[in-house]
Amino acid sequence: MSIFDVVVDNDEITVLGPPASLDVAIDIGQQGVRGSKVFAGSGNPNVYNFGSIELIDGDLFLNTSTGSTYGWLYRYTPKPSGDQWDSVLRLQTPLYAGTHSVVFSAGQGTVTIPTSSIIPADMTIPNDDNFIIQITPISDDILIYGIDPDAKGVVASNFVFTINARKYNTSATGYSDLLQFATSTYDFNVHITVV
């Protein structure tokens, strides 16, 4: 049997065409295993009541409770010791925002922030390079500023970084170091993201 019907056939040419009709048979097979479901709720899914819902490997749960566990995505994983939800991904990276008064001496000022203000208690403190810092001065003065890459990191229970800055000196028409006197304290908006 050919999928084409012969329309014209002689010694010199053969023309093939589509069949005059098609018969299609549809059969419904057995129902397969359902795909994974995504649940959302407040709190740890290992103690959450799912009622009569049968959980399967690959189901997901998003913790919407406030606090340090907010935004964690869990995956349901069957295990020989008992099925459980394992945290697999934090959907919201730790963020910090605040305003700090920075006192400058010889063009440098240090900002100290408790790590508990940046990183939740249940999270391991990452490498110093995982802290992304953005600073913006709150000043009418013209400043050139930047973060010293060699002077940032976790010291004891604080995250510390140094700002190098210069102020435009209108009387000398140039930039000079920010010195420690009445005009040497500047407020900076500080935003830190941990990746």
Short description:
This protein is mainly β.
H and E order: EEEEEEEEEEEEE
Radius of gyration: 33 Å
Strand content: over 45%
User: How is the main sheet built?
Assistant: 4 strands, mixed
User: Rough shape?
Assistant: elongated
The N- to C-terminal Cα distance equals 63 Å
Q: Which residues sit in consecutive blocks of at least 5 with pLDDT less than 50?
A: none
| Total domain modules | 2
Walk across the major sheet and give the strand order. 3-4-5-6
Indicate the structural class. Answer: mainly beta
Helical stretch tally = 0
- What's the pLDDT, averaged over the residues? 83
Tally of DSSP β-strands = 13
**Share in helix:** under 10%
What does this structure look like?
There is one protein chain. The chain has 195 residues and is mainly beta. The chain folds into two domains: 38-90, no CATH class; 95-194, no CATH class. The protein has no helices and 13 strands. The strands form four sheets. It has a four-stranded mixed sheet, with no helix packed on it. Strands 8, 10, 11 and 12 form a four-stranded antiparallel sheet that branches. A hairpin with an 8-residue loop joins strand 4 and strand 5. The two termini are 63 Å apart.
